[in-house]
């Protein structure tokens, strides 16, 4: 059966450029290649939105606690999906992930958590056959240094601590 392939838009290519492209495609076909099937495979390849949806459904909801599920879902929906969602899974590069990580420099802890989530997402993409092995673009990106915080108990928390200590001294508390 006959199949046709578009080389470019009318006017964007000169006739000589179009002839050279056509000759290159014919040579590729003569060598046993199928440029049209390759192009269709690239178009049909999964994008990051599909991968993130599968990650949330098959991994986060199965393996994480409810609070972690909520936080990871928030990060995916508000930060990761808007910047990487339309890219094809196989075409995401370390530069794309680095750009996202640097864009979150004002919140270093959140930036590091987003990087961890992306690393897990790409590891699962390798497991699920969406990326080649050892191709995780989040690998070897240096994380930001996080500032430790000193926190003091407020009045309500001090009261509850005192009650727990009194109960432990009088009645005893079970060791967990």
Description of the molecule:
The chain has 7 helices and no strands. It has 176 residues and is mainly α. The longest helix has 20 residues, at 108-127. It is elongated and about 90 Å long.
One letter per element, helices H and strands E, the order comes to HHHHHHH
How many strand segments? 0
Residue-averaged pLDDT: 91
Helix content: 55-70%
The number of helical elements comes to: 7
Largest sheet: none
User: What is the percentage of strand-forming residues?
Assistant: under 5%
List segments where confidence is low: pLDDT < 50 over at least 5 consecutive residues. none
Q: What form results from the Cα inertia axes?
A: elongated
Secondary structure category: mainly alpha
Rounded to the nearest angstrom, the radius of gyration is 26 Å
Distance between the termini: 72 Å
């Amino acid at each position: 059966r006959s199949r046709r392939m578009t080389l470019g838009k009318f006017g964007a290519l000169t006739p000589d450029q179009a002839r050279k492209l056509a000759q290159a495609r014919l040579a590729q076909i003569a060598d046993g290649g199928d440029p049209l099937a390759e192009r269709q495979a690239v178009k049909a390849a999964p994008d990051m939105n599909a991968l993130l949806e599968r990650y949330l459904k098959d991994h986060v909801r199965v393996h994480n606690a409810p609070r972690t599920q909520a936080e990871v879902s928030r990060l995916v929906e508000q930060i990761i999906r808007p910047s990487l969602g339309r890219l094809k899974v196989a075409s995401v590069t370390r530069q794309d992930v680095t750009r996202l990580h640097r864009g979150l420099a004002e919140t270093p802890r959140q930036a590091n958590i987003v990087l961890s989530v992306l690393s897990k997402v790409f590891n699962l993409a390798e497991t699920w056959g969406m990326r080649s092995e050892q191709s995780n673009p989040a690998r070897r990106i240096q994380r930001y240094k996080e500032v430790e915080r000193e926190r003091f108990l407020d009045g309500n928390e001090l009261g509850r601590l005192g009650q727990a200590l009194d109960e432990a001294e009088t009645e005893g508390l079970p060791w967990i």
